[in-house]
Amino acid sequence: MNSPHDQLAEYIRQGVIPPYQYSYPPRSTYRRLDEGAWDVHDVWAKDLAAYQVPELSLYLHVPFCRYKCGFCNLYTVISTDEDLYDAYTDALCTQLRDHAEIIRARRLRTVYIGGGTPALLSTRHFEQIFATLGEIYPNWRSTVEEVALEATPDSIVADPDGFGRLLDLGLTRANIGIQSLVPQEIREAGRGQAGEDVIRRAVEIVHERGLPDLSTDLIMGFAGQTPETWRHSVDELAGLAPTTISTYFLTVRPDAWFSKTGAYQYMWRPELYERYDYAREVFTAHGYVQEGSVRYKKPGRGGYAQKVLTFHGVPLLGLGVGARSYTSVLDYMTGSVKPSMSEVADYIRSAKAHRLQPTTGFALTPEEIVRKRLVLDTFDLDLSELDRFGLDMIGEEVEEILDAAHANGLIHRVGPRRVQLTPKGFKYRDILSWMFYSDHVKTLDREYYEGLHEANARARRNMGTPVRITGIGTARESA
């Protein structure tokens, strides 16, 4: 077997593009838990005992969308039913109250409302959610440093006063999915998207209303995207001056519609790194600094606090159907990983009956806790923080990988035990992160996706569609 140095050098030479590493272990490793084996409050009590400074991030999932994007594999369902929104909000607030003890025992750092398209909810729904949060954690507006919401340009343009009301309720960051400023790329990707004029108007409204942090994104690798169209999107977005910009490589997981049908020929080649280089050059020239491998921010204003804290090991409590929770004991969901309206209905019933417990997840050993930090947090990591979890168990393997990263120019050695990514390390961070995966996690991940590929192949054969194996990954972050 090649040494870690040779493996890493070869991956870089080939221009390998792994999935963006935003969680570890990935959702693909979750398996059905024995019924009744895990109690939510017991899990969080054990997690609390593991940390001297208890902190918490809160993620609230709203699964509703107007349509399903072809490349999306997130937990979403299609619905614009206001009665369903009412029932779901009631259930979410009930679940919040059921977790009051867990939340109160920690310092609440961030609140993120994701989806789906949570901006489909009405102002009254957000008022209900924030009022419930105030019941159980009265000073949350004082302690929370980031309150974020996913929105669409057309939702902001359609109701600017409603968006202003969200700012009054405490919103500090809005994530607006742009993906591209070339309409044809978006249409071919199966995403209904507002025109450039609507995007510009949405950005104007956000700036006029004084939102502290506007976060946008672009995707590299759409079908039909060229170096010229990519440069157009980058240049135009830099001119709009949002406070935070993310750039993702487009990958389509086997559980996304495009992969099931084999109908979408997106780009997945090493030349995409040249588009990464162009974006980095333009954004840094416009005063952005790189916060992560995919993210740029205006100093002192932009950024994604919840993601940074999660990478640093701060636990995350995920509420709502399809939400994931990350602890030092168990990463888990309280329902199925497959979105459906029946699953949403079951969530509403179970939440109102106070019956939600972990059903799917991954139990973390001390070794996997160490690997989680190494996979996610090499941007700036003091290895001494991992000693109490047993870094020495895999110390030799870790040092070999870090030596390889240093020799290949991916990390700085800062002091005796701190490591930080170099600019080259930011670029190839996902390659380095994959090398810290345990064999157990790699096996579970492979088994999951092999099963999906086989199911997709059977379905396409039944439809008479040529079988095409697609890449694995996601172009969007979510808890």
From TrEMBL:
Pfam families: Radical_SAM. GO terms for biological process: porphyrin-containing compound biosynthetic process. GO terms for cellular component: cytoplasm. This is Heme chaperone HemW. Residues 50-295 form the Radical SAM core domain. One of its GO terms (molecular function) is 4 iron, 4 sulfur cluster binding. It comes from the Bacteria. InterPro entries: Coproporphyrinogen-III_oxidase, Elp3/MiaA/NifB-like_rSAM, rSAM, rSAM_sf.
